[in-house]
Amino acid sequence: MEKKIKLPKLADILLTLIGVALCGIGTGFANCAALGLDAIGILYDGVRNVLGLSSEALGIASFIVSAVIILFLFIVKRKYVSFGTLIYVVGYSACISVGNGIHHFVTGGREDLWIRIIFSVVGFMLLYVGLSIYVAVDIGVDAFTGLVLYLRDVTKMELKYVKIQFDLVLLVAGALMGGKLGVATLVTMIVAGPILQWLSTRFQAIYWRCRLKDQKEIAP
Known about the structure:
This protein is mostly helical and 220 residues long. The protein has one domain. The chain is built from 8 helices and no strands.
């Protein structure tokens, strides 16, 4: 297996921030489109609803949920909490609000169905691209991935089965708390896996190729 060549710390952080920003902005777009969120987004939205926060406060709810998970992981499985995890939590929560702001600026408050569909599609694509960049850089896992890995360690089940059951629990829990279910929820359940796998593979290939090129250029 080809050994991964790590980026300099600053480059790692910058690339991670780009990926996280795209994730947050994409979630903000999808939230404003109100056509449904993915499993994690529905949980955030459910918590937001229980706390009595406005729909634009999804970022606050995501920060609260992620902070609780990180605290739990720090106690029971500290290896799944890293600097990259903290970058994701803070950056993602803040950029959801940025996505909300961009949506309102572009649409001017219009809620035509075709506008909502466009922002939903663009939002999820930004989310998938951002996640793929974050995965390619690989300086840590987000809070939910860390929790899934911990559950895998505890249950001794294959990761894919833990992930499927975990997402179902999030979906049901979020919906019971009032999280937004919609047509986009169903679509993302079908297409998210293949799209993320395709994008992640290509971003990782580009990442490794660029690092190998840089390594050769600086070699004596």
